[in-house]
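Q: Trace token order:
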Amino acid sequence: MYIIALVYLLLYIIPAIILDILQIKHIKSYSKQKAVILSKKDYETAANYAISKLKLSITSHVFEFVLLIFWLEYGISFLIQNCSMQTISNFGLNWLMLMSFVAINAILHFPLNLLYKKIDTKYGFNKQNMKSFLIDCIKTIFIVGTLLGIVFVLLLWIMETIQLWWLVGFIFLFFFIILMQLIYPTIIAPMFNKFTPLKDENLKNRIHTLL
């Protein structure tokens, strides 16, 4: 199992951290140049905001690696041991383990989401209060949990009943992802955001021309 962690570290975590560090250096060097489009203050604010997000991104990458080690060392065996105590079928057991994994991951990632919100609030990109933030988190957990619950049921059924499960599973996930591109902006996004028509007709026409 630790080979998986090593591969993940070498092929994803380290390159991602290096890219974030290089990006921070790049932004710091350019932030000292003369502002062209933005005012000097906004230019510096944008640079500081980007650097803050990148530093948190580095922390997030380290956290993801530590979390992977946790799952490999303790988490998976913990889920197997506790879920196996349930008197349910193998199908239900596999589904319960997958959903438990998603739920625990969501809880462990909550502090990081809170830090990202704190940065956005500090630089004026997020005016959401804590109550509204928590309500959105609950909505997200409910929606993601429901969708993943359905997806896991169908994938497990495909794996147990169809010989070419890997191909059928890929086709199912492919069309599910396409469907989500249609559902998200029309159904899911309005649950978290308020959308109003653009009143600036000139800007609206320019955007349509660009599209």
